[in-house]
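Form 12-C: Joint structure prediction
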Amino acid sequence: MPRRYDPDRRQRIIDAAIRVVGQKGLAGLSHRTVAAEADVPLGSTTYHFTTLDDLMVAALRQANEGFAQLVAARGALTDPHTDLAAELAALMGEWLAGDRTGVELEYELYLAALRRPPLRPVAAEWAKDLADLLAPRTDPTTARALVALMDGICLQVLLTDVPYDEGYAREALGRLIPPASP
Amino acid sequence: MPRRYDPDRRQRIIDAAIRVVGQKGLAGLSHRTVAAEADVPLGSTTYHFTTLDDLMVAALRQANEGFAQLVAARGALTDPHTDLAAELAALMGEWLAGDRTGVELEYELYLAALRRPPLRPVAAEWAKDLADLLAPRTDPTTARALVALMDGICLQVLLTDVPYDEGYAREALGRLIPPASP
DNA sequence: ATCCCATGTGTACGAGCGTACATATCGGAG
DNA sequence: CTCCGATATGTACGCTCGTACACATGGGAT
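Section 2 - Result
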C-alpha cells in the first residue's frame, strides 16, 4: 500500500467530483464514484467529506469561482463606457458556447439547492455576487432583474433545443436597463 | 389477496408520485416509494411505468396542467385592456403564496429535464404554451423574454430566502414590454 | 528523539434500488 | 358461454449505496 502523504488530496477529490457531475449528472455522484474518479480509496472521500452535501458545497463553490473568473476576464463589464446589455449577452454566449459541461454542472448544482438546504447559501451567493457586480452600472433592483433574466434565458437554452440567440438576449437585457439620465 | 379491478390505478399512481416528489424530493422517487404511497404492490408501478422517466413524464405533464388551470382561471391575462405586467406579477404571487410544494415540484421536475432527455419535450412544452398564450398580447419575442424573466424570478425566490416582491416583478416585467404604438 | 493525532486504507454490514418473472385474476370481445 | 390478453401480485437476484470501524502511517509539535 504505497501512496501516503498526499497533501492536495482534498482538492483532487473536489476536482473529481466536478468531473463526475459533469459526465454523469448529479444523480451519478456518490462517495464511490468520486473515489474511483480521483483514484483514491473509498474511505478517503468519506474522511474528507462526511456528507455528500459537503462535497457538493465544495464543488459548487469551486464552480462559482470558475464563473467569476470568466466574468473577471471580461473587464468591459465594469467599464461604464461599454454597452452593458451587449456585454452580458456576449458573456452568456461565451459561457454557453462549446461543450456545455460547465454550464450544466453549474446549473445542476445550483438547482440542487432547491432541496438541499446546505447548498442554498452558496447558490444565493452566486446570484448576489453577480448582482453586486452589475449594480454600479445601473442600480441594485435592475441588477437583480438582469441576473434573473440571464438565469431564465440560460435555462431556456439548456432545457429546450433552441440555440442561443445573442441578439435576442441583448435586446431583452437592454429593455431592462432604464435609460440613462444625462 | 383482495383488491382486484382497479380502473384508475394508473392515475392514482401518478398522484402518488406527485405527492412523493412534493414531500421527499425527486431523489426520493422510486418505484417502491410510489407503490407505498399509492398503496399498491411494487409490481403494479413497474407494470404501468416501466421506467421512472415514464412516471416523471406523466407527473410533469399533470403538474403542467395544474399550472395551466391556474392561468386559465386568470382570464384577465388575455384581456387586452388589462396591465399585462401586473397580471403576470399577480399570477406569480398567487403561485408562490401558501405552501410552495406545487411550485417546488414543478421546478424540480422541470429542471430534471436538464439530465433526462425524455423530460425535455414536456419541459419545453410548458415554456412554449405560456409564451404562446402571451404572444397575442405583445409579440412572440417579448413573450419568450417574459417567460424567461418569470422563470428567473421564481428561481431567485425559491433558491434564496428573499420573499416574493410583486411590485419588483411587475416593474421588471413591465420594462420588457415595448410601449404600445397607438 | 519521541510521540500524538491528523490523515490514509481496507473491509464489512444492512438497506434500498431497478429489474425480471412466474403466477393469478377477470372484463369484455367473440 | 368461452377464452384471451390486459391487468394485478409476490418474490427473488444482483447491484450500489451510505456508513461505520479497526488498523496503519508518518509529519510535525515538543
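Section 3 - Comments
DSSP finds nine helices and no strands in chain B. Chain B has two domains: 1-50, 52-176.
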